[in-house]
């Protein structure tokens, strides 16, 4: 498994072209904590003996 995080459309188009690739969304909005969300996702990936690859889209002007 490969974890990709661009915008939803880009990540899903790339994942559709590669075997054994899955897009997982990181819960970071609202009351979610980005560091805790990444820890949970990495724990899930580790339990599947997979290799994570994280690309984060960071807004330049969050409101």
Key attributes of the depicted protein:
single chain; flat; 2 helices; mainly alpha; 63 residues
Report on this model:
This protein is mainly α. Helices cover 37% and strands 0% of the residues. The chain has a domain at 21-58. The termini are far apart.
Task: Describe this structure in a few short sentences.
This protein is an all-alpha fold and about 60 residues long.
Low-confidence stretches: none
The span between the termini is: 33 Å
Q: Encode the helix/strand succession as letters.
A: HH
How much helix is in the residues?
A: 25-40%
Structure summary, number of beta strands:
0
**Helical stretch tally:** 2
Strand content: under 5%
CA-based shape: flat
List the helices and strands and how they pair.
Layout: H1 8-16, H2 34-47
